[in-house]
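Hi support team,

I submitted a single chain yesterday and got back a structure, but I'm not sure I'm reading the token output correctly. Could someone confirm the output below corresponds to the sequence I sent? I've pasted both exactly as they appear in my results page.

Thanks,
R.
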Amino acid sequence: MTDPAAQSSSAPESHALPTVEIRDLHKSFGTNEVLKGIDFHVNDREVVVVVGPSGSGKSTLLRCVNLLEVPDRGQVLIDGVDICDSGTDVNAVRRKIGMVFQQFNLFPHLTALNNVTIGPRKVLKRTTEEAEQSARSLLDRVGLADHAHKYPAQLSGGQQQRVAIARALAMNPEIMLFDEATSALDPELVGDVLSVMRSLADDGMTMMVVTHEMGFAKNVADRVVFMADGVVVEEGTPDAVLGSPQHARTQQFLQQVGDH
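Hi R., thanks for writing in. Yes, this is the structure output for that exact sequence:
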């Protein structure tokens, strides 16, 4: 009798804790104040898409989540652990976070397969056999099973980005961060990458996505956050923020990107 009761009482608490919680985050580069007191969260299995004009602080916010940029002030909590706290094992927390960049950052001297296996082998101490089995499965998932032995230079930009996604997934992250993952791609290659991202969302991956792809934001996001000038101006469902924005700054931005 006691076990089910204990389980049912504890389950809501674990789900109530956001995967990512940001409190009063500030970041400046010299005299340029990029983030001006951001409060932000991403819940478990939620897809949050961050949109806004260039220079609004979107990418800096994303990079603060895994301390690629160190905040000047505020807190960044991953599963309730403040990674800005000096006593936190940042590397252990980072292993929960996969990140895909605008530039693919693949190792040019390694094949697609070896780009995906290197993290699990070096960091997670997987055997070569284990790492390769997982990597082949992930390459298949992103539609590149037949390209495992090709080098980055032999792949299109879209294929390289899909290898980068497989590489991030190989570390079994709890959350995936995407920083303008399609903006360096030729237009005809964008769809394949967005399709992979959409499939991750469908599978329940927790995701924080900075993008200019309004269609992706409309169709895939659980929540859209509009940033401008270092602050969160507006957030809500895609229908609310993109369909009937309340703030003049949001309306202006959507007009400029040609969204209606």
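A quick pointer for reading it: Strands lie at 20-29, 32-42, 47-51, 73-78, 81-82, 97-100, 175-179, 206-210, 223-228, 231-236. Let us know if anything else looks off.

Best,
Support desk
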